[in-house]
Structure formats: C-alpha cells, structure tokens
C-alpha cells in the first residue's frame, strides 16, 4: 500500500519544489546527474510503508556515509555517454552497417557532424562503461557483504557476461575501424539496451546515495529505525528543522497510551516550527533517508496529513474558516477509513471567533484523540482548550513553547516544556511597538 499524503501537506512542510531554495528536496539535491535528480524526486514522491524496505534503504545510506565516497565519474563524460546511448538505434546489424556507411560517406563529402557525434559518443561510452565496471568490481572486492552488494553484483554480472566482456579488448587509443564501430554501436544501443539501462540506473542510485549522505554528514543528521505498526511508538530525540540555521532541537514522544501532543504557547514562540520539524522527520524516516535528529525510532504509518497554512478559496467562495472546516473534514475521512496516520493541526479554526474556535477545537481534538492508532499534534493559543481536554482525556501529552520575560521584552527559547502555557503577552507586544500611541 502506498504512503498517503496530499499537496497541502507537501506544501505545508515545504518538502518538494526544486525551484524553492528552502525546500527539503533542494537541501538534499547535490546530485551530479539528471537521472539521479529524477530518482531523488521519485523517492520524495513515494515514501515507503514496508519496514524491511525502509530499513534496507536506510542501511544503504549508512553504508555510503561510512565509505565517504566522492562521485567517481566525470559528469560531462557521463552526460555525453547517456546522450549517445539514448539515441536512435538500428533494429538489426545490417541496418546498423548501412547507417554507419551513410555517415562515413557524408564524412568524406565534408559533412562531418553526424559522423563525429556518433564516433565520439561511442568512444566516450566505451571508456565510461569500462570505468563504471572497474569501480563496481573494486567496491565489491572491498565489501561483498554490504547492504548495496546485491545491486552491485547484478551490474557486475552484466559486465562479466559474454555480451559485454568484449569491452576489455577494445583498443580505445585511436579511432575504431568501420566494422568495430558497427558492431560496438549495435551492441550498446540495440542488443544490450536493457543491460545498459540497469548499469545507468545503478550509477544514478550511487549519485543519490553519495549526495544525500554528504548532506547528512555535514548537517549532523542520523538514521531512524523503522518498527512494525503493532509497536505503535514514535520517539524523536532532539529533532530540529533541517532548513534552519542554528535550529533549536526538541524531543517528541508518542505511543498508544499517549497518542496526542497538545501544543500551546504564544505566537512566535515556535509552535509551527516544532510541528514542521516533527512532520519533516516523519516523512524523511518513511523514505529511509537520514533525519534531522539525534535519534529516531518509529512505527511505520500509512501516511501523513497536515493543516498548517490553509488558504481560502475566493474562486469557490470559501472563507478561510470554511476552508479550515473542509480541511478537517478531509482528514477526518482519512482517519475514519481507518488508516494509521500522523496528523498535524496548527491553530485549529483560527478563522472564526474565539468562542466558536474554543468549542470546535475542544470537540474535534477529543474525537480525534479516540483514534489510538493515529498520532496527532494539535496546537492552539486558546489555552483553556488544553485545560478542558486534560479533564476529559487521559491519552494527551501537553507540551508548550515557553516565553521568558526580560522586563517588558518577551524572549523565546524555542525549547518545549511539559505542561500548558499560561503566556498572554499579546497586549504587551502591542504596547512595546507603541501602536496605540501611533494611532492616538
């Protein structure tokens, strides 16, 4: 079953968006090849729900991080190789000979572009494939039992098979003869097309593993351990937002007995960042990627939904409040499906008056909390909701983001504490900014 989420969640957590400088995917995108960039995007779009698959990918990343490899192939030559190999090919050897004869004739007539393009592409491809084969063989000799050994062995068998063994005997010191060109071109672009695709996919995968682990090492990320859904646990130790400089870490813990974090605190105290950090770690962990945390253990979930930046829809005639209601309805349908989900609500029903927001937040939070198979973070600045929930439910963990007053100046530590916030500094901030004096 695929991991479920939606565009709203991806936007809330800023996970995708290759043209957004602060997106999570851009943080990891140090890839050297177009194929690796496409593979990275695919990984981000398709998190995993199998414990075995998550942990195996995580182990491969850890293996590459321990090896501290630089990308071993010259990117310009690799790009030229891929361009050549992706070109149109002859359906049989006679057609290949005819095409090469035509290019040769045009060459002698002074029209050299097509001939040189194919000749140079073929030589570059032969050299690159020999380099890839040597690197794979060397890596296998160093560690034949690595988590990545199966992929390496598959490619190594192709290089050592009869169809590609001839690479070792090709003299690439000078131009190839007519018959060598015909034979090699036909083999690489027609006969061995599927095998070559396997080899290039391996190169793209190595590119991704090297790029991601370079980021992990530089940022101090670590690897999460996936557990079965039946364990129903989540522990993120010292998790932080991966895209913020000097991000303040916080710990979050949930299980079947305490499956809801009810988060309070003043505006600007860090509630949204706490929740986004939490959501990003959950998502990356289900991809098998390194996570921005000191450590993480989690039971695999079916998906994640957030309601953080819900836009109104003027074209549909939706107010902000009605858009919020529709978002909660969408998530309620998913929770009741039933699915094992992670759900994040930031400031429920902030588009209506305080009385309605209090009643709605209390009622919705209480009902959601009954779904013990799901994990929730629900934030509000209406602290009275937390006090009422504490009397009605026994499975809610209360956390708040504190504000320290230095005289009349609020200072935010961004370090979560147990309990419910009692901070009410809105009017003080208004007075500090002298808004009333400006109006008067």
From TrEMBL:
Pfam families: MutS_V. GO terms for molecular function: ATP binding; ATP-dependent DNA damage sensor activity; mismatched DNA binding. Residues 258-440 form the DNA mismatch repair proteins mutS family domain. Keywords: ATP-binding, DNA-binding, Nucleotide-binding. SMART domains: MUTSac (SM00534). One of its GO terms (biological process) is mismatch repair. SUPFAM superfamilies: DNA repair protein MutS, domain III, P-loop containing nucleoside triphosphate hydrolases. It comes from the Bacteria. This is DNA mismatch repair protein. It comes from Pedobacter hiemivivus.
């Amino acid at each position: 079953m695929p991991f479920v989420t939606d565009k709203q969640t991806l936007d809330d957590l800023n996970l995708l968006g290759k043209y957004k400088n602060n997106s999570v995917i851009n943080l990891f995108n140090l890839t050297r090849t177009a194929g690796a960039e496409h593979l990275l995007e695919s990984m981000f779009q398709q998190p995993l729900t199998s414990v075995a698959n998550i942990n195996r990918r995580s182990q491969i990343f850890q293996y590459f991080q321990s090896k501290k490899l630089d990308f071993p192939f010259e990117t310009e030559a690799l790009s030229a190789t891929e361009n050549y190999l992706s070109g149109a090919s002859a359906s049989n050897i006679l057609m290949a000979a005819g095409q090469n004869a035509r290019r040769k004739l045009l060459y002698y007539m002074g029209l050299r572009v097509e001939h040189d393009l194919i000749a140079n592409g073929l030589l570059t491809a032969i050299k690159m494939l020999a380099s890839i084969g040597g690197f794979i063989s060397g890596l296998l000799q160093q560690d034949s039992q690595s988590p990545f050994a199966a992929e390496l062995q598959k490619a190594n068998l192709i290089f050592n098979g009869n169809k590609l063994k001839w690479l070792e005997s090709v003299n690439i010191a000078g131009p190839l003869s007519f018959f060598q060109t015909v034979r090699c071109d036909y083999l690489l672009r027609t006969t061995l097309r599927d095998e070559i695709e396997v080899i290039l996919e391996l190169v793209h995968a190595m590119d991704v593993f090297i790029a991601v682990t370079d980021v992990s090492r530089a940022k101090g990320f670590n690897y999460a351990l996936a557990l079965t859904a039946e364990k129903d646990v989540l522990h993120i130790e010292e998790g932080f937002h991966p895209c913020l400089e000097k991000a303040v870490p916080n710990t979050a813990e949930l299980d079947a007995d305490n499956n809801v974090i009810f988060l309070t605190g003043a505006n600007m105290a860090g509630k949204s960042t706490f929740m986004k950090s939490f959501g990003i770690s959950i998502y990356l962990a289900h991809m098998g990627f390194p996570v921005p945390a000191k450590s993480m253990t989690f039971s695999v979930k079916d998906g994640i939904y957030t309601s953080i930046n819900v836009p109104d829809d003027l074209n549909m005639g939706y107010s902000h409040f009605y858009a919020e209601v529709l978002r909660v309805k969408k998530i309620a349908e998913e929770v009741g499906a039933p699915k094992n989900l992670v759900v994040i609500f930031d400031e429920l029903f902030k588009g209506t008056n305080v009385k309605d927001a209090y009643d709605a937040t209390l009622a919705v939070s209480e009902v959601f909390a009954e779904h013990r198979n799901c994990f929730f973070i629900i934030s509000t600045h209406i602290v009275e909701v937390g006090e009422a929930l504490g009397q009605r439910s026994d499975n809610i963990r209360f956390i708040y983001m504190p504000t320290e007053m230095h005289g009349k100046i609020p200072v935010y530590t961004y370090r979560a504490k147990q309990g419910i916030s009692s901070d009410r500094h809105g009017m003080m901030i208004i007075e500090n900014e002298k808004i009333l004096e400006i109006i008067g």
